Amino acid sequence: MNPYFTKLDIPLDVDGVFTDPMALLRNGEYLKQQKYGLALLRKKAFTSVPNRSYVASVEDTQRIISQLPTRLLDIEIPKLWVLDMHAPADEKEVMLAPHVDGVRKTAINIYRNTHGERTCFYRYAAGGEIEEVDSFVAKDGDIWLMDVSKPHAVELKPGKNRRVLTISFISTPYEVVRDAMT
Q1: Which pTM was predicted?
Q2: Distance, CA of 62 to chain centre
Q3: Are 92 and 158 in contact (CB under 8 A)?
Q4: What average pLDDT does the segment 4-25 reach?
Q5: Is the dihedral of CA 165, 69, 13, 134 positive or negative?
Q6: Which of 8, 22, 27, 153 could disulfide-link 143, Cβ–Cβ 3.0 to 4.6 Å?
């Protein structure tokens, strides 16, 4: 099994959650360049863009979380966020730079507004080097489980907005969520 991500073939009713971010409560904006992104900048040129996070409504959260397996919910009740990434049209190489998520370990991402963006996972090696180890391209409606405690990035498309509904497990490791979901 892949130690970084798994495509899930499960039905989740997420209708109505992908609303205008202005109508949602902002959870955070992540701008800081981590050591992983700085290491990649030594290898290739890119413009880093922020990732904005919004909290889904209480009603949407309860409806979507209740669709997860009970054995998983007995371990942790996850959070539900909407992630919004906008790539400027005038930049050639744009990405959400390599990073690890500091507030969660595991994510189940449900994709909307995709445009062929590639999610890449990296290994941080001795001497500050970074190397890509695997990647995937999500399509609208895809559901991917990811170990966000490992370095990862998103290669964005200039002038496009990417939106993701993400079920966030703060303390439950990827392998535990994967075993409960597959």
Answers
A1: 0.89
A2: 20
A3: yes
A4: 80
A5: positive
A6: 8
Provide the terminal-to-terminal Cα distance of the chain, rounded to the nearest Å: 11
Distance CA 28, CA 30 (A): 6
What's the alpha-carbon Rg for the chain, to the nearest Å?
16
Question: Which residues does 166 contact at the CB level (< 8 Å), separation at least 6?
Answer: 80, 81, 82, 83, 107, 108, 109, 110
The 10s digit of each residue's pLDDT in 23-76 is 666 666 555 555 556 666 666 777 777 677 888 888 889 999 999 999 999 999
Among 114, 169, 125, smallest CA distance to 147 is for 169
pLDDT-derived band at 105, boundaries 50, 70, 90: very high
Tokens 């170990």 belong to 147
